[in-house]
Write a structure and sequence with these properties.
elongated; mainly alpha
Length: 84
């Protein structure tokens, strides 16, 4: 089950909810599949951003900070994927 609505980003989703209380999106079945695809795409984009940062950011401290933020986002998305 989703924890965040893929359409409106409503984070007040309960396990038993079939629809988002904000935008009305169905949260089961096809919506979960679409969410999985969107998360997979975002994970790919994060990998691309990491490579670009490693190549373009010359200040080691700044590079490390940026990579840490991306890694945290990557981990949170992976966690969300496991819950679907």
């Amino acid at each position: 089950m989703l924890n965040v609505c893929p359409r409106c980003q409503n984070s007040e989703i309960e396990v038993e909810d079939n629809f988002c209380k904000i935008c009305g999106l169905g949260l089961k079945g096809k919506a979960a599949a679409v969410t999985t695809a969107l998360i997979e795409h975002e994970l790919q984009l994060i990998q691309i951003r990491k490579c670009r940062i490693e190549k373009r950011v010359t200040d080691p401290e700044e590079r490390q900070q940026l990579l840490a933020v991306l890694e945290a986002h990557y981990c949170s998305l992976q966690s969300l994927m496991q819950q679907l």
